[in-house]
Amino acid sequence: MTTPMSIPFATLEKITNGFSNDLIIGRGGYGNVYKAVYKGEVIAVKLLHDDLVQLLDDRQFKNELFNLLRVEHPNIVCLRGYCYETRYKIVKHNGETVFGKHIHRVLCFEYLEGGSLDNHLHAPSLPPNWTTRYNTIKGICEGLNFLHGCQPPILHLDLKPANILVDSSMVPKLADFGLSKLFHGSHTHVTKQIIGTQKYMPPEFIKDGKISVKNDVFSLGIVIIEIMAGPMGYSEFSEMGSGAQFVKEVLTNWSTIIKATSEYPAEELHQVNLCIDIAMLCVDSERVNRPTIAGILDALNRTKTHMPSSTKKTHIPWGQLEDVPLCSTIGPKSTSKRSNPVPTKENKRLKMMTTEVDNIANKHQQFNCMPGDSSKTIVQQVPDRETSSDVEPTLIIGRDEEKHKILSILSESNAEEMTILPIYGIGGIGKTTLAQLVFNDIQFRDYYRVWVYVSQKFDLKKIGNFIISQLTKETSDIDDQQTLHNRLRQLFAGKSILIVLDDLWEEKQHELEKLKAMLRLGIGNKVVIVTTRDEAIARKINRTVMPYKLEILTDDMCWSIIKQKSFFEDRCDKEQLGQIGMDIAIKCGGVALAAQSLGYMLREMESDQWESVRDSYIWNLSTMEDPSLRNHEVLLSLLLSYSHMHEFLQLCFSYCAFFPKGQNIVKYDLIHQWIALGFTGPSGIFDSIQLCEKYITRLLGMSFLQYSKTRSSDERQDKDVKMFVMHDLVHDLARAILADKVNKEGDAVGSSCHYALLTDCSKPLQLSVSSTEYSRFNFFLSLFKKKSSHENIKALRFLNCGKVLLRGDAFSPAKFLLVLDLSECFIQKLSLDSIGQLRHLRYLCAPRVNDYTIPNCITKLSELTYLNLRGSCRISALPESIGDMKSLMHLDLSGCCDIIELPVSFAKLKQLVHLDLSHCHVSVSEDFGGFTKLQYLNLSVLFSSSKGHRRGLLEVIGNLKKLRYLNLSRCMEDIATSENQIGSLLDSISTLSNLEHLDLSENKQLSSIPESMGNLRKLHTLDLLGCYQLEKLPDSMINMVSLKVLNVGNLVTLDESVLSLLNIASLPHFVVHASSGKCSSNITRLQATNPDRLIIDRLENVKSAEEAHNIKLIEKQKIETLQFEWTVAARRFVDDKEVLEKLVPPSSVDSLCIIGYRSVSIPDWLLGISQYLPNLAIISLVNFSKCKNLPPLGQLPNLQWLTLSSMDGLEEWNTTYTTGEQGRNELLFPKLERLNIHDCAKLRIEPCLPRALYLRIRDSNNVLSSLNTREQAESTLPSDIAHCDNMISACGKSSSYSGASSSSPITDLFVEESKLPLHQWRLLHQLPALRGLRIKHCSDLTTSLAVIQKLSSLQNLSLELNDHELPSWLIQLTDLQELKLMHCNSITSLPQWFGELASLKRIEIKYCKGISSLPESIQQLTKLEFLSIHGCPVLEEWCESEENKMKLTHIKVEIAGRDSVGFEDSKVQIVKPMPAQMVRQSAFATTERR
Question: 43 — phi, psi (to 5°)?
Answer without folding.
Answer: -130, 165
